[in-house]
Write a structure and sequence with these properties.
about 300 residues; alpha+beta; Nuclear Transport Factor 2, Chain: A; Jelly Rolls; 2 domains
């Protein structure tokens, strides 16, 4: 007489978890429910831009993405103080911008802030004819600019006055647009943004199913994975998967089971070709490759 087969409890738990993850992804596999906050594309140009060096570049989009004290900044490219030079933000559709926050100058350090030109005045101009004259302090201080009025499709931030520094460059470190109603503004073109929802849904499904064929085409290598299992307290462990075989092996070992649990994400730009989709603990990093969004990294911040 054969003995009954007993499945180990942890194996059952893993299989159940994977099944729940697949079901959760399947429920919104069209991508419609993944991004609850409206997401709008914007492009950023400038009248001039300082030439890049080996260590730094100063593209116009930099102040509009993921602002922090250590992030990049835009600098005008004229040989003088840059009076009249401007950043131009163009939205994919008319949007009500209630206000914007400005971080003028180079905020990376006090030394750099004081060494470069200090911007003391800008005009914020909307495409429907509004002009707001803004006086800026000679210090590291965020300035909020109320716009009011109806929807706009284009905003121009023009330099009107600077205090000359040792380094004759005028720069802006941060521009945060506050839309009404709340809107995620993503740097990039409308076509790439339109591809985001269906692409993300396919990527999530491939991770949930450990679909080898799909992962070979939907991931960008080397691909990184980070979690809280760092060697020291409050440090992240980072694993690099050099190819699809390594990623598929990790997936089948149930390393990514947590990534099937989330259903709502905030979208944040890193550049015109890279963005993050985040919930409270998980982060999907996507990169644009030949017009297609691919998985570039995963971060699991679960305590």
């Amino acid at each position: 007489m054969s003995l009954p087969v007993t499945k180990k409890p942890y194996v059952v738990a893993i299989l159940a978890s994977a099944a729940v993850a697949r079901a959760a992804v399947a429920a919104d596999d069209d991508g419609d429910d993944l991004l609850p906050v409206p997401t709008l594309a914007m492009t950023v140009t400038a009248s001039s831009t300082l030439a890049a060096s080996k260590a730094h570049s100063y593209e116009p989009w930099r102040p509009l993405v993921g602002w922090s004290r250590t992030s990049g900044f835009w600098c005008e490219g004229k040989r003088d103080e840059g009076i009249g030079e401007a950043l131009v933000v163009t939205l994919a559709a008319p949007t009500t911008i209630a206000s914007l926050s400005l971080h003028a100058g180079v905020w990376k350090s006090m030394e750099l802030f004081q060494a470069n030109n200090i911007i003391t005045g800008v005009d914020v101009v909307t495409d429907d004819g509004r002009v707001v004259h803004v006086v800026l302090p000679e210090e590291l201080r965020e300035v909020d600019v109320a716009l009011g009025g109806g929807p706009v499709k284009q905003l121009t931030i023009k330099l009107t006055k600077v205090k000359k520094g040792r380094m004759n460059d005028s720069c802006i470190s941060g521009v945060q647009l506050h839309a009404t109603p709340e809107t995620s503004l993503v740097v990039g073109d409308a076509a790439s943004l339109a591809a985001l929802r269906p692409s993300f849904a396919k990527i999530r499904q491939a991770i949930a199913d450990c679909d080898a064929a799909a992962l070979r085409t939907l991931a960008m290598f080397p691909m990184s994975y980070s979690d809280t299992a760092g060697a020291k307290e409050d440090t992240m462990r980072v694993i690099k998967y050099k190819d699809a075989s390594a990623l598929i092996k990790a997936c089948k070992s149930t390393r990514f089971t947590a990534f099937g649990n989330s259903t709502h994400f905030a979208v944040k730009s890193e550049s015109p070709t890279r963005l993050r989709l985040e919930d409270e603990t998980l982060e999907w990093q996507l990169a644009l490759d030949a017009g297609r969004w691919k998985l570039a990294g995963l971060i699991d911040g679960t305590p």
